[in-house]
């Protein structure tokens, strides 16, 4: 082998090595890029669940607030319905004590010696009338055979829970106006004694406005 050939081969070897180094560098670069991409994907993917996890309780809290609001509104609606029913429900009177149990009744001490207690209540309703009243006028009657007189007596008996078969009428008279009346009634044994003031309401009937619990009949009329 000539000197020239040996020199040629000797010059060629370094060229192949340099080429191999370049390829190795390329491969290393690709691997690095892949590592970076994979790492970025891992970190990016793991951050999203945290965000969702953080947001989920907010939605739950919001739903709980909405549920609470709904329940409060439903309760208010139910309370309003109950109040409405209480106002519209007919007055059920079984005794004078049932009048005193009302939340709206006002009980005061009588200013007269014969009066123990005075009961008033703005929620007392007029007892329905059967008279033909067009609202333009009403004629109060004290004829015991008239429908108006009977309705006066019925209103007094019902508001005091006195039975028609256990009733003494001491008097019923005008109370200072054409649409007012006052009367004293008692049980037959005189253990229950009352003086009742009435007011006529157009198209409705006689409405009790005051019930006085008496301790005696004398001086009550």
From TrEMBL:
Instruction: Report domain DUF1510 positions.
Output: 120-214
Entries under InterPro entries matching the protein: DUF1510 (IPR009988)
Enumerate the residue ranges of region (Disordered). Answer: 48-85, 125-144
Q: Where are the transmembrane segments?
A: 23-43
User: Where is this chain compositionally biased, Basic and acidic residues type?
Assistant: 52-85, 131-144
> Keyword annotations for this protein?
Membrane, Transmembrane, Transmembrane helix
Protein name as it appears in the record: Protein of uncharacterized function (DUF1510)
